[in-house]
Design goal:
About 15% of the residues are buried. The N and C termini lie far apart (about 30 Å). Helix 2 crosses helix 3. The radius of gyration is 11 Å and the shape is globular. The longest helix is centred in the C-terminal third of the chain and has 11 residues. With about 70 residues, it is mostly helical. The protein is built from five helices and no strands.
Length: about 70
C-alpha cells in the first residue's frame, strides 16, 4: 500500500480521474499525483478539502482509523 493509498482508492471508487479531482481541489494534476504516490506530503488544507468532498474523516484519509465517518 502506498503512503496515501486511500485517496487513490476514494478517487477511483468515485470514477474520477486525477485531473478531475485536482480541478475540484484547485491544484495541478501533477501536485495531486505526488500526493497519491506519497512523494509529497499532503498539506492540511488539502486533507480538509478531500475529507469535505468525500464526506469522511481526515483520520480515515491518513490511515488512523478504518471508520470513514467523523465522530460526532
Amino acid at each position: 500500500m502506498t503512503k496515501f493509498q486511500r485517496i487513490q482508492d476514494l478517487r477511483t471508487d468515485s470514477d474520477l480521474s486525477q485531473r478531475q479531482i485536482s480541478e475540484i481541489l484547485h491544484i495541478s494534476q501533477r501536485s495531486y499525483s505526488h500526493y497519491e504516490t506519497g512523494s509529497r506530503n499532503i498539506p492540511i488544507e488539502m486533507l480538509i478539502r478531500l475529507a469535505d468532498y468525500y464526506d469522511i474523516s481526515i483520520d480515515y484519509l491518513v490511515g488512523r482509523t478504518n471508520n470513514k465517518k467523523m465522530a460526532k
